[in-house]
Write a structure and sequence with these properties.
alpha+beta, OB fold (Dihydrolipoamide Acetyltransferase, E2P), five-stranded mixed beta sheet
Amino acid sequence: MNRTKVDWDIIKDKIATLQEALSQKNVVLPEDKRAILKARAQKLAIEKKDETAWQEFIEVVEFRLASETYGIETSFVREVYPLTDYTVLPGVPAFVIGIVNVRGQIISVIDLKKFFHLPEKGIGELNKVIIIQNEKMVFGILADVILGSHSVPIETLQTNLPKISGISGEYLKGISSNHLIILDAGKILIDEKIIVNQETE
């Protein structure tokens, strides 16, 4: 029976070389490699989360007005009310379609299409009133369709827009990357050309 002679010196040299490589991290075992990749993935996820957390957002109610999609900050929106009935007022500007009674409070309703000279569209069953307010004023804005609400990163807004679809830049907060036109509700609420002198309480 033949026996293979084992050269222990060669084996010892290989073990020593491997140990030296491991100590210098030239060789990464499979389980160590998986751990390194997992740690890198976790770090990237945390960095991405931190980046999103540092972004500033505004929450807007999105709605259709004529052929465009608009947004108005939810911080100014009290509620969305269905336009089922309203009373026409004599002697008011054409953009004031009338008043509505919302749980005992009389609120005037503004048609921004007329105020901004946008293409007209008849009042239909889908019309809603977005009731906006600040500390001193409250009135409703007529909307063709309410599309919902979502957050918009402020840094993505394009500003310095002199005019969009007939709307002067003074009434605009900006336009988002997906072409959502965000109105400046704060300025609309204090605009003397829009305010109708009447009791709202």
